[in-house]
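Changelog-linked ticket: 2'-deoxycytidine-5'-monophosphate example.
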Amino acid sequence: MLVAIDGPAGAGKSTVARAAADALGFTYLDTGAMYRTVALARLRDPQADPQALEIELGDRVLLDGEDVTDAIRAPQVTEVASQVAADPAVRAAMVTRQRALIAGGDWVAEGRDIGTVVAPDAELKVFLTATAQERARRRAAQTGRAVDAVLAEQERRDDRDRAREASPLLAAPDALTVDTTGLSLQDVVAQIVRLADERRTAESTR
Ligand code: DC
């Protein structure tokens, strides 16, 4: 079974997806980490072929065997990730890997295009949003940076993610949209876990 969680940066996707996966006993898939790893590889070598990279996701993120868990969170990588994510060849290579992973077992997968492109038949699709100000405030609190600077960068990336031709950030028509502004993330997790449990029960009795 697959729970797809999409939405813009800072909407709470990672926190919610990780906690929901834990509560359900599902495996968590952070697809953004894949685009970040490609970005890091391209920063080091602009010719890096996304198909040839060995990317391992788990407690740590490995690029060709090297632990890049912290390196892929650097602001420069964040910026380049949104650029490489607009490249159709990069997207095709990542989507193929993501589909192969989620083909077996139970997953909570988080990204921008899980419910629309990677797995349009996901049993549960959630689109998490929050106001731009709230999302920037959360990111700033996590990173210790100024809210205004985070907000400006975030708007540039959001615009790029929404405007790109290849798999733009958008809610699937059958996704449940949850605005997390002012909501506790625990409440959001509880709601998703309840819905996933309902779908799981419905499937097992079908
Ligand atoms: O969620 P994140 O900030 O780690 O994602 C990094 C970048 O990758 C961001 O610009 C959006 C992009 N991305 C994407 O285009 N599709 C996904 N499924 C996941 C992330």
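Closing comment: Example verified and attached. The chain has one domain: 2-196. The chain has a mean pLDDT of 94.
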